[in-house]
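ok so i was messing around last nite and threw this chain in just to see what happens. nothing serious, just curious
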Amino acid sequence: MPKMYFAEFTNTNTGQVFQKFGHTGFNDAQKRLNYITEEFPHFDARVLAVVYHHNIDICRAIEETFKINFPKNLMIEEKISGVTEIVKLDNKTRYDVIQRVRYLNDKYKAELFGAQ
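result:
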């Protein structure tokens, strides 16, 4: 079940926090993040919000839209998978993005499965 996700990473060595947009075919977006944290164990990662859609191309398009609206503004030493999708957002913007992603998820669920 494809998903577009908005996630947050914390470097446990430095305390640096940043966010990442991405998409995955995994049923659970956290599994995608776990691959990154297994390779770079000094990062903690958690999913903040997801958009589900049957069509992974729709998930990719949603991700691209967010990346255009919130372009990469942070460089990190590690070359984690998806490093081009990382951003550093202030708390208000982070909250607003979470709300936008949740809104889209509700919208697509209603379209795909009928009003709930």
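not much to say yet. The beta strands are 3-11, 17-24, 43-52, 86-87.
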